[in-house]
Write a structure and sequence with these properties.
Layout (H helix, E strand, L loop, with lengths): L13 E3 H8 L3 H9 L6 E3 L2 E5 H14 L4 H9 L1
Antiparallel strand pairs: 1-3, 2-3
Helix pairs in contact: 1-2
């Protein structure tokens, strides 16, 4: 037994671009453009791009505490 109840769900560590675009309420094309412009963080594994769910969580937390998050600025601040 793992100690988890039946109501616990395992959250994915990574999301596809399509899943992330849906979560953020934007088109996949817009998100792909932001990724390729360096304005949104992603991981490339061979030809596939994935987005760490932690990035979405961190952006959400930052938006809740500051009121506005610019994804491009957020990406730059995390890279440094």
């Amino acid at each position: 037994m793992t100690g988890r109840s039946a109501n616990d769900t395992i959250r994915p560590r990574f999301h596809s671009v399509a899943e992330t675009a849906s979560i953020l309420g934007m088109s996949e094309v817009t998100l792909y453009r932001a990724i390729h412009a360096g304005q949104f963080p992603a991981i490339r594994v061979r030809g596939r791009l994935v987005i760490p769910s932690r990035i979405i969580d961190d952006m959400e937390a930052s938006a809740l505490s500051t009121g506005l998050v610019d994804a491009g600025d957020f990406t730059l601040s995390k890279a440094g």
